[in-house]
Amino acid sequence: MDSVTELLNLALQCRNNAYAPYSRFKVGAAIRCANDKIFGGCNVENVSYPCGTCAEAGAISAMVAGGCTEIAEILIVADTENILPCGNCLQKIAEFGNADTLIHSADLNGRIRTYTLQQLLPHVFNAKEVTNA
Predict the structure, then answer these.
(1) Which residues pair with 41 in a beta bridge?
(2) What distance in Å separates the CA atoms of residue 131 and residue 116, rounded to the nearest whole number?
(3) Total domain count, the chain
(4) What is the pLDDT, as a whole number, of residue 118?
(5) What is the pLDDT of residue 13?
(6) Most CB contacts within 10 A, which of 12, 32, 126, 133?
(7) What is the mean pLDDT of residues 75-83?
(8) Is the Cβ–Cβ distance between 52 and 24 less than 8 Å?
(9) CATH of residue 121
(10) For residue 47, what pLDDT band results from cuts at 50, 70 and 90?
(11) Which sequence positions are flagged as catalytic?
(12) Of 17, 14, 22, which Cα lies nearest the Cα of 49?
């Protein structure tokens, strides 16, 4: 099984567990770290919409809790043709990735599009810019 298929399978499993009673829009995500460990996440809504979390954020939290801090690639799956991370999640991915980090967008039919972080967030800011390090 190739790495993208492995990520897709985990993201689909996570998507099935998504808690989306308000939007009914379930999303799953899976991350492969630089050390090849993989972690998943799903969106979790809240009746107070700003309090929910995206699937990417859940996967990133699981990754950090698992001791990894470098994203090699991430896959997001939903029932839409081209699901992309929101701006908030792109910045979270940037915290643990780099310009070449792969972001795969998958639908429920297995169609996958691949982007780099640089393509989706060309003007990212990072800790180096904020702290002048």
Answers:
(1) 29
(2) 25
(3) 1
(4) 96
(5) 98
(6) 32
(7) 95
(8) no
(9) 3.40.140.10
(10) very high
(11) 56
(12) 22
